[in-house]
User: What shape does this take?
Amino acid sequence: MMDQKTPTLNHTPNAWALLPLAVFLLSYLVVSILAGDFYKMPITVAFVVSSIVAIAISKGGKLNNRIEQFCRGAANSNIMLMVLIFILAGAFAQTAKAMGAVDATVNLAMSVLPGNLLAAGIFIAACFISISVGTSVGTIVALAPVAIGIADKTGMPGALMLGVVVSGAMFGDNLSFISDTTIVATRTQGCKMADKFKVNIRIAMPVAIITGIIYILIGSGMDNTYTPLPIEWAKVMPYLIVLIIAVCGVHVMLVLFIGIILSGMVGLFTGNFDVWGWNAAMGSGITNMGELIIVTLLAGGMLEMIRYNGGIDWIILKLTSHIRSSKGAEASIAGLVSFANLCTANNTIALIMAGPIAKDIADKFNVDPRRSASILDIFSCFVQGIIPYGAQLLMASGLGGISPIEIMQYLYYPYLLGAGALLAILFGYPGKFTNKKEA
Assistant: This one.
C-alpha cells in the first residue's frame, strides 16, 4: 500500500526562499506585459536579477559561501551534461541545415503526396523534420515559407497552413531525442530517453493520427500545384540514421556526434561547403545555443539556492498536502510545468524549473520516472504550442504576416495533445507504465 504520510523534507520549508522565483516572474513576465512585448525583457537579464536576489537572501553565511553554493548548483552534473548536449545539438542542427538536409527532407515529403493531401502532407513533413532535428523553431523557419506559398497557390487559408506547421513542429519538440525538452525532462526525472519515448509515443501518436485525419478532411478537394525539386537521398540519410540510432537507445551525445560527422561528410561530398564552411556551421550552431546555456547555468544556481533554503520543500509540502493518489501527483506535475511555461514562454526553461520539484513528487507517490518525464514534456509542449507570445507562434506569425491569434484556431495537435494527456492521467494510460519499476 502506498505511503501517504507527510514527506520527509531535507530542509525546513520556507516560503521566503521562493522570493528569487517571484522576482524572476515579476522582472520577466510583468515587465514584458507592461512593455507589450514578451521578448522585450531578455530572459538572461531576468535570471541574473533573480540570481542576485537568491544569493543575497540566502542563509548560507558569508557572501563567499553563498556564491559557492550558487556555483555548486550551476555546476551540477545534470546541468553540465545538458550544456554539453546543447552544444552538440547546436552544431548538428546548423551543419545539417547548411548541408541542405532540411530542404531535401521537405522535397522528399512533398514528392510522395497525393494532390489533395497538402495540409496533411505539410503536417507529416513538419513532424518528420522536427523529430529529426529536435527544434520546433527550426522546423517552422524551414517550412513556414513553403506552407505560405502553397496557401497562395491553392487558396487555402494562410493561417491554416501555418497552424499545420506549428502543430507538426510541436510533435517533434515533444518526442525528438535531441529536443531540449526531452533532454531536460529525462535528466531531471532520471530515466532513459528511449524509455520516456515509449510512454510518450503511446499518447502522442494517436493524437497525431487524429490531427492528420482532420487536416485530410480540411484539405480534401484541393489540387496540388506545388512541384518539388528532385529528391536528394544523400542529404536525407543523416536525419534517417540519427533517428534510427536514437530509437535504438544509443547515448544522445554519441547520436549527435555521429549526426555531425555524417552531415559534414555529406556536405563536403555534395559541395555544399568546404572544411572551413563546415567549421563555420558548427561554430554558428554552438553560438546560437549560447543564451540557452547561460540560462541553464543561472537557473541551476538559482534553483539550488531555493532548494538549499527550503523553498522547494515548501512547494512540495503544499502540492502534496491534498494528493491522495498517483493520479493526483501526476495532475499536480502537469499543473506545475504548465504554470511555469505560461509564466516563462519557454518550455525548456519551464522544465528546468519544474523538473526537480516534479521528481520529488514522483518519488513520494510512486510515479514511474518514465511517466513523470513524459507528463512534464507533454504539458510543457502543449502550453508552448498555443501561447501567442511564445517563440513558435511569433516566428510563424512573422514569416507568414498573419496574427498569432488567427493561427491559434488551427492548432489542433497541441490542443488534442493536452486533452489526450489529461485523459491518460485520468485513466492511467498506458497501464504498463503507471507504477514505478521495482528496484
Observations:
- The chain has a mean pLDDT of 83.
- The chain has 21 helices and no strands.
